[in-house]
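Hey, weird one. I pasted the Threonine synthase sequence into the form twice and got a warning about non-standard characters only the second time. First submission, copied straight from the form history:
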Amino acid sequence: MTRVIGLKCRECGAEYPANIQSKCNKCSGQLDVQYDWGYIKEHISKEKIAAGPNSMWRYADLLPVETGNYVDLGAGYNKLHHAKHLGEAVGLKELYIIDESVNPSYSFKDRVTSVAVTKSIEFGVKAVGCASTGNLAASLGAHAAKAGLPAYIFIPATIELGKIVQILIYGSHVIAVDGTYDEASRLAGEVIKLHPDWAFINLNLRPYYTEGSKTLAFETAEQLNWSAPDHCVAPMASGGLLCAIARGYQELMKVGLIQQKDIRISGSQPLNCSPISTAVQTNSAVVPVYNYKTIAHSLAIGNPAEGYYAKQVIQSSGGYAATPTDDEIIEGIHLLARTEGIFTEPAGGTTIAGLKQLVEEGYIERSEKTVVYVTGNGLKAQDTLFKTLKQPVTIKPTLSEFEKLTNDEEKRWG
Ligand SMILES: Cc1ncc(COP(=O)(O)O)c(C=O)c1O
Ligand SMILES: [Zn+2]
């Protein structure tokens, strides 16, 4: 007996065994993992979760794996911070942050990768791979190293140096494509056809892979004493993260771990690459964008795989979508660091700037208990951020030089 029954097409309902497959043979719709909810309800409990590991694997009963041999570097079960100062700054009474910059490879992608590489081992594949805007690549490199599998990683050549160094250090095979993420992803899709015994975790393993992000909802609810917030805000690139967070809360209601509740879900994308947010704002179809350029490299996907569904989740929940400019994204990074001591990369800046916009424009009410997901670490984007900061002064190591500086530069300390 297992908790996974198979895969099912989101569009036409066609069912498939739980193999390596992401698209429906009949209509090309996306496939989702189907669970045996009766089985899960019998096995899951708050006590069992509390006695589980201090990682996302404490929620294994809601994840699509069969064995207990998790490829686990310790991702997840991150602290839910009560963000009083940021709350005051943006005008919210009760604001919380899940800080994903502290995961093993410093982004939320460790959740999806940990599930997908565990699944790759179960399927007995020869190698893993992905197309990535940077964080997924680094995370896959780390988890593939832990699992002893080779990793083939396709990235746009223009992403931040910090991410490229990180991917290389794990020994991954890095293919830097002279083009956008969408072009790298298309190429990776062609490579899969040549290597059917490789698992490209966000392409042919996508149904299993996206499930890892549900744990963000699970651990938020657990730390809110098994209750749900009123409003969540997440960054969007493919839209997969936002959809998984919404699904995570729904599943907790389905198995009876939290009470039924309407939760509003809002998203944020950089204005310069915002196909999903623009579709929400204009209430129109998600139209792919080309020739985009933003400092939020990790969110720069012009043709989002789950854009249509992310828009539906946002609109049906009563949420909205923000589109901060690159300057506002930088301000968001500075604001979070200075109010809460959390250093995030531009994806996190997009979320914080988006949160601010949504409150200012009345899409989040000031009394709503709000959770914001900060998904990546600022140290990965030093090349972008250093030039936005007041530079340090260099002095000779004497007290008189310091005092001179203090007198001359009073404003500097102010
Ligand atoms: C730090 C960070 N946050 C958010 C996202 C968006 O995730 P998704 O593609 O699931 O929407 C990404 C995607 O790469 C990311 O790297
Ligand atoms: Zn179908």
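That's the output from the first submission. The warning seems to come from a hidden character in my clipboard, not from the data itself. The longest helix spans residues 109-123.
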